[in-house]
Amino acid sequence: MSKRILLIFAFIVVFLAGVLIASIFHAGSPMVVIDFVNNSGKKIESIEIIQKFGRDEKIRHQIQGPTAGTSKTFRMSAPAESSYGLIVNFADGSRIAGGEGYMEAGNKVTEVIGTTKIESRHNIGGYKP
What we know:
By secondary structure, the protein is of the alpha+beta class. The chain contains 1 helix and 9 strands, in the order H-E-E-E-E-E-E-E-E-E. The protein has a single domain, classed as Domain of unknown function DUF5300 (Immunoglobulin-like), CATH 2.60.40.
């Protein structure tokens, strides 16, 4: 009987240690990180992020854009495979569209915004809180 209790206790300790380690290193975190870098030399009024998942489900996020020569980080939940697109609205009224396609939890992408295009740079599995 005491071996059984000891075995159960050992299982609980190992399980809790695993939970602690996973939470420290964000294992299984459903976050996607997008860094926006404004290399356009222009003021960005806003950035629209259209997240798509499932068949027809969409979530629209809108953030204030980074000023010229700076960057801004955006985190969003992606509990399953998703995709997204971007629309950058400049203060002068012009717009450009583009950005990454496929994403899943743990991905990190840097979106470099120019005057006429958006360049995606991938860092798969590079999520760091």
